[in-house]
Amino acid sequence: MVKPFSLLTDFDIALFQSGKHFRLYEKMGSHMVKNKGEKGVCFSVWAPNAKQVSVVGDFNQWNPESHVLLPRWDASGIWEGFIPGLGKGTVYKYRIQTHMGVDLDKGDPYARIWETPPRTASVVWDFDYRWKDEKWLKERRSKAGKSQPWSVYEVHPGSWKKRAEDGNRSLSWRELADELVPYVKEMGFTHVELMPVMEHPYFPSWGYQITGYFAPTRRAGEPEDLMYLIDAFHQEGIGVILDWVPSHFPGDIHGLYFFDGTHLYEYADMRRGYQPDWNSYVFDYGRNEVRSFLISNALFWLDKYHVDGLRVDAVASMLYHDYSRKEGEWIPNIHGGRENLEAISFLKDFNEAAYKEYPGIETIAEESTAFPGITKPTWEGGLGFGQKWMMGWMHDTLNYFKRPPIYRRWHQNEITFSMVYAFSERFMLPLSHDEVVHMKASLLYKMPGDEAQKFANLRALFGHQWTHPGTQILFMGGEIGQSTEWSHDLGVPWQLLKYEFHKGVQQWVKALNKCYTEHPAFWRHAFHPEGYEWISGGDTENSVLVYLRKGDPGEPMLLVVCHFNLNYMPAYTVGVPHGGIWKEILNSDDQTFGGTGILNGNLKAEKKPEHGKDYSITFKLPPMSVMVFEGEPQKVKTSRKKSDSVKAKKPKS
Q1: Which residues contact 524 (CB under 8 A, 6 or more apart)?
Q2: Residue 435 located in a structural domain
Q3: Is there a catalytic annotation at residue 105?
Q4: Residue 100: which CATH number?
Q5: Given 222, 313, 425, 435, which residue is catalytic?
Q6: Going by fewer Cβ within 10 Å, which terminus of the chain is more open, N or C?
Q7: The domain containing residue 47 runs over which residues?
Q8: Shared domain check, 416 and 304
Q9: Is 126 a catalytic residue?
Q10: 81-137 pLDDT, tens per residue?
Q11: pLDDT tens across 182-238, in order?
Q12: Whose CA is closest to 466, among 191, 151, 148?
């Protein structure tokens, strides 16, 4: 029997219906409560077009007439009620009778945990975890809005490492805490980005086809186990970013699609409501209740799981009605344009809510078009994201590196063009999972040449990525020079580390992270032109780029020399902004990293003009290499007015 009970107030309903309720997870779904001294579970679900909604499960032999929920009197479309005697671990679904005479068994959109796939029922849950990351959260708040290093390691939790001795199974959340956390710490990454951890029915979707938006996948353990993993990262000083997917959802019958017998969560017109690329459905961003659901979901992960950022997947598909559609397959907006005005408004609301409620977090857009103002504040007309993936850099750079070095002299513009727009947004440079699947080859095997040349090219690619303005993200396996495409079934081939070239790439990435985080010149002004200065991009014959990275006045400048050809030059001269010693702090040709061992050490700048500078240094330029030189710190010149430094004389009496 269902008894009348509600966690929702009239104010909650008003916020829900206006698209401004961002804590729905505290009221909707299933919650263990006491009702007049009686313990049980309160259920609430939004199904405005249902004929009847009941809770079914093992506890009532899945009988839809046993526990029928009560419709609210306020026409909100919410069905609710209290079932005494139920508790944590209760397995249930909502049986929805539609007006078409079809019964649907639906999982709870707000469930905090589901059964382990292929089972599809929701589970009553109440969190029981004691966090130990107070210091991390306090420091995160204190750094809000301040420059800080971002070097991100992208991980698919289900395939980072496999247990071959145990049927090639994936690691659990707690096993990842034991093995992934120390590895990321050792490698020097500042953040880890986890591909979607939310419950999904089909493992090969990598988590991007979500049915349980508020539930971590049961494949890896309980919710508290994921909390333990995130807590472990925080205690080691590593931030955690989650992939978040508000762009689409699958058509699995137990999920959000056709939820109450109508197109409730998705656009009703499939010219807007269906995404052909992924055979999935598009959220109705114009429906206020859906907006409340999605933004509540985003804040849920920031709140309950203490995550430090959300990387929003497939933003371009949200912004444009004609994304992946031919003429006649989409509907223009009210002004006749292709932009999805409702999605644009939703993304602004999402970013404003996230940054307001959780200062110090970051939202990151995977957005592949030239849509303006992705990372501009909403009050300046932008979408309000903290960073945006620099897809143009990724495409141009990989195209460049695929070319045999002998042809690169005619394509220097491919590697330099990114600087034309590098500061138009706050960019993150991605070498993500998307670039090493679907017959695209691994990063290593995109590179031309023999084995040694492939590895030299890969080290040069990473050197350019880490020293380019912006921040960077690298997908797992790239850091060891994985030779095969990523396979979610096989995982990263860690056995490659017994070979020197692969071990050398790993040591190079580790050295890059150390150099990057220890030198503010790389990240102090990562998104602003004052942090960067071209020295030379005109040596196309030798495929050489030279540029400065700069921090605040008084902090040492860094000179970056990128050589993307196979020739060795024993005396190469480059202009520098000042005299003194220029110390070689990084060289990808070091034998430690698998190079030939052509190093320079400390160099004294000579008073010889070059590249428009009064001073220059001459050094050995190894083949296919990236080098970083650190200049001597320069004294900050201060000027004071004479009247400030001379005391006024006392007038004569």
Answers
A1: 147, 531, 550, 551, 552, 555
A2: no
A3: no
A4: 2.60.40.10
A5: 313
A6: C
A7: 10-123
A8: no
A9: no
A10: 999 999 999 999 999 999 998 999 999 999 999 999 999 999 999 999 999 999 999
A11: 999 999 999 999 999 999 999 999 999 999 999 999 999 999 999 999 999 999 999
A12: 151
